[in-house]
Amino acid sequence: MIEFCGIELAHPVINASGCFDVLAARERFGEQLTRQFPFAAYVSKTVTLAPRAGNPPPRLWESPAGMINSIGLPNPGIERYLDEHLPVYAGLGVPLITNVMGSSAGEFAALIETLADRAEVSAVELNVSCPNVATGLDIGADPRGLRLLLEELRPLTQKPLIVKLTPNTADVGACASAAEDGGADAVSLINTLRAMALAPGGGGPWLGGRTGGLSGPAIRAVALAQVASVAERVAIPIIGMGGVGSGADAAALLEVGARLVAVGTENFRDPAAGSRIAAELAGVFAENAD
Ligand code: SIN
Of 153, 214, 221, 267, whose Cβ has the fewest other Cβ atoms within 10 Å? Predict the structure, then answer.
């Protein structure tokens, strides 16, 4: 068992927000999904106060050893999330972390207050780092703004608050430290690196949102460096992510200071990646113990 912000988890591998669609997986895998759920906790895709349609297509580009997405946080809004998604997520048999994004402190506050008395939700992750929306990124790269946001949100809930940090900043350690000072219980990193792809044959940027976020093995070394630098700056637990595709990748993030590891882009290639990586990680621990 792993302890994380007072929550007990069967192992240290969870999913990265937006990288495992439980509703789609349930349609495809049925009851098997809950019998063999691949993660020790489920992190929802970002939910906002009002519904969002997301960015115009195209939304994806395959790049060397990675993927650039410009999804733009499409979601049904908090009301439909509570009515339609939450009952499904609550039946998964693992703790639920709900990821939220507000375009102002007031929107974040409304989301936190709405979730505060929902027993199904074990923790809330604040997405202050999506590169694909006009708001959201700025505050995540501004230590003072982050501290003030956390100071405002902290009194609104007893639930652990996890801050999802952006790598698109000069000093991620300063942002993590500011989140901790403001009252965050944990930080998670890295979200995607801002990136661009040009349309083949000309015509400017390929993605409908012009730029997107790079993920996958291409960002693994960046994630390792940023998690290591944050671990030197904060005492709160860290969820490390970025290009994790194997138990060895997960073990590396744990070695530099992460408490949990999240699997993102690899889930699109292998929906059972979470279980596989958790088993490989257990093998790495067993080998190291010998
Ligand atoms: C998106 O929906 O644009 C991706 C989510 C994120 O990068 O936070």
Answer: 221
23 touches 91 (CB < 8 A): no
Q: What is the DSSP string of 192-207?
A: PEEEE-BPTTSSSBSB
Nearest Cα to Cα of residue 247 among 224, 273, 280, 223: 280
Burial zone of 229 (CB within 10 Å; 0-12 exposed, 13-18 middle, 19+ buried): middle
> What is the pTM for the complete model shown?
0.97
Judged by DSSP in three states, 142 sits in coil
pLDDT band at residue 139 under the 50/70/90 scheme: confident
Task: Answer yes or no: is the C-beta of 192 below 6 A from any ligand 1 atom.
Answer: yes
For residue 15, give both structure tokens: 């999913």
Q: What is the DSSP string of 46-59?
A: PB-SS-B--PPSP-
Least Cα distance to 193 among 157, 168, 226 occurs for 168
127 in contact with ligand 1, CB cutoff 6 A: yes
